[in-house]
Amino acid sequence: MKKKIVVAFDFDGTITNNDTFIDFIIYSKGIWSFCWGFFLYSPLLIAFKLGLYSNWKLKQKIFSYYFRGMSINYFDEICRSYFSYKRETILRKRACEAVQKYKEEGCLLIIVSASIENWILPFSSYLGIDKVLATQIEVNEKGILTGKFKSNNCYGKEKVLRLQMLLRDRSSYKLIAFGDSRGDKELLSFADNAFYKEF
User: Fold this and answer.
1) How far is CA 115 from CA 21, 45, 124, 141, in A?
2) pTM here?
3) CA 116 to CA 166: how far, in whole Å?
4) Rounded to an integer, what distance in angstroms lies between the CA atom of residue 147 and that of residue 64?
5) Phi then psi for 122, rounded to 5 degrees?
6) pLDDT, tens digit, for every residue of 174-198?
């Protein structure tokens, strides 16, 4: 029996031409607010670069600084606005063409990303992606962002774990993966065919 073909794309730097975590903060909060926040967290940024502080802890703290206390409805509205404003400039043409090619071939298309699920979803819908596996944010009973992540940061080994949770029988499909950074190393190793910085 012919195996199903699954194509997993990293988002930041693979489908897009830059890091959307930083870009989204600048878009939603402005350049001066962005600079001030990153200045405040510069000691932790240095510690992260030296390998003394974890990626997910730093990311969660920065996310919390900018978005804790915001309503999920307003946050999602900003995400849709970000997509509308950035769609024409942030998406890599060759990546979009690859997505379309695999879609026409009937493959299962998945975005596996450390970025926040909410702002990826409008892009994934536009591209015709079947499933998004990304970092999820926590919302309290009043619909307010707590500043914490609901899921693990979808980075490194977590990308593979998410895929395994979604598709439990590894022998039932062939995996093609695209990535561009250290956070994609495990995903690319897990794939049958891996493409690094292909676009």
Assistant:
1) 6, 17, 13, 23
2) 0.90
3) 18
4) 4
5) -60, -35
6) 999 999 988 899 999 999 999 988 8
Amino acid at site 1? M
Alpha-carbon distance 127 to 192, whole Å?
23
SS3 182: helix
Phi, psi of 167, deg, nearest 5: -125, 90
**Residues ≥6 apart with Cβ < 8 Å to 182:** 156
Distance CA 114, CA 157 (A): 11
- Cα–Cα distance between 132 and 11 in angstroms, integer? 10
- Provide the b/e sequence for 71-84 (b: ≥16 CB within 10 Å): ebeebeebbeebbe
Strand order in the sheet with 173-179: 131-135, 108-116, 4-9, 173-179, 193-196
